[in-house]
Amino acid sequence: MSAAGLRPSADRLGRLLNLVPYLLARPGIEVAQAAADLGVTQRQLREDLELLWVCGLPGYGPGDLIDMAFDGDRVTITYDAGIDRPLRLTPDEALALVVALRMLAETPGMANRDAIERALAKIEHAAGDLAGAPVAVRMPGSDDRLATLRGAVERGRALRITYYAQTRDETTERVIDPMRLLMVEGRAYVEAWCRRAEAVRLFRADRIDALTELDEPAAPPSGAEPHDVSDGVFAPGPELPLVTIKVGRGGRWITEYYPCEEVRPDGRDSDEWVVSLRVTDLAWAQRFVLGLGPDATAVSPPELVERVRDAATAALDAYAAPIPENA
User: Dihedral angle at the C-alpha atoms of 289, 291, 296, 302, nearest 10 degrees?
Assistant: First the structure.
């Protein structure tokens, strides 16, 4: 059975093991109320109850199986077959919860931090020795940098930052008006109004080389809207350049890593694929294609083809140049 098929079965088993103690604590509860409490449909709950009827102790005869009584739309467990305790966490599950809660507690800009810390304290108390497991949770970027960013957002202060923009392979200095801190795909970002670009921008915390909190308040324009990052940081739109490249078998991984508009085989008998995707600018696309090496060929637009050809030619010329004797 595939992993996808195993997951629903595992979920149902956990639900069934918790269902008996839940019903024991609420004799005569309405099916609709129980379904709402457990987060399932009434149909699913009734199917679970029908399955419980044939579960129980070895022997599987009268007095061995779980039994219940129905009174209209109300249900009461009349025999629990010994399953009278809620499902307990395994050591791995408890440790996973501790790590997840520690991650949430470290997340910049996370609301309800007190509630997270209270839940973490309870889980750590229940986990016992596991709470002291040698597991450290840290967000990308230095703690000092994140603390400064968090403080600027909370105090509503503008920041002067030195930022490395990977797409353009350049470092710039700019003043930003922070709006919020957020985590996307495991990385910390500050979302801010960039006075240099005159637009809302996301700045990766680990690419901020230096930052200084200014005395002036952060003042993003009233029309500055936060990005929708539910599908990730990069949201390709029709306003961005569309590039097409041809990749061999060794370069097909890009179709799983980057959002592509079109992927098609380059002929019936070819191992190459033709891939079209949106990019922030052609300079990034040039470095991207060159980085793929012999597994990629630029197809369009013509400017990208020319950029890649010129850069590759310059590199080959540099290799062909004789090395000075005194080098």
Answer: 20
pTM > 0.85: yes or no: no
How far are the Cα atoms of 23, 45, 135, 165, 174 from residue 75, in angstroms, in the given order? 8, 11, 44, 62, 65
Residues in the chain: 327
Contact between residue 247 and residue 293 where contact means Cβ atoms under 8 Å apart: no
Instruction: Return residue ranges of the chain for CATH 2.30.30.
Output: 157-217
Helix (H) or strand (E) holding 262: strand 262-265
Residue type, 191: E
- Which fold would CATH assign to domain 242-319? Alpha-Beta Plaits (3.30.70)
Residue indicated by tokens 């709950």: 45
> Which residue is associated with the tokens 């569309």?
242
Half-sphere exposure of 173 (CA within 13 A, CB side): 4
Digit-coded pLDDT (tens) for 143-196: 567 778 888 888 889 999 998 877 667 888 999 999 888 877 667 888 889 999
Split at pLDDT 50, 70, 90, the class of 240 is confident
Alpha helices of the chain — where are they, by DSSP H? 3-24, 31-38, 42-52, 91-106, 113-127, 143-155, 254-257, 282-291, 302-320
CATH number given to 157-217: 2.30.30
Architecture in CATH for domain 3-79: Orthogonal Bundle (1.10)
Region(s) of the chain under CATH 1.10.10.10 = 3-79
| CA-closest candidate to residue 141, choices 187, 95, 96, 174 | 187
Contact 270, 264 (CB under 8 A): no
> Among residues 147, 149, 125, which one has the least CA distance to residue 138?
147
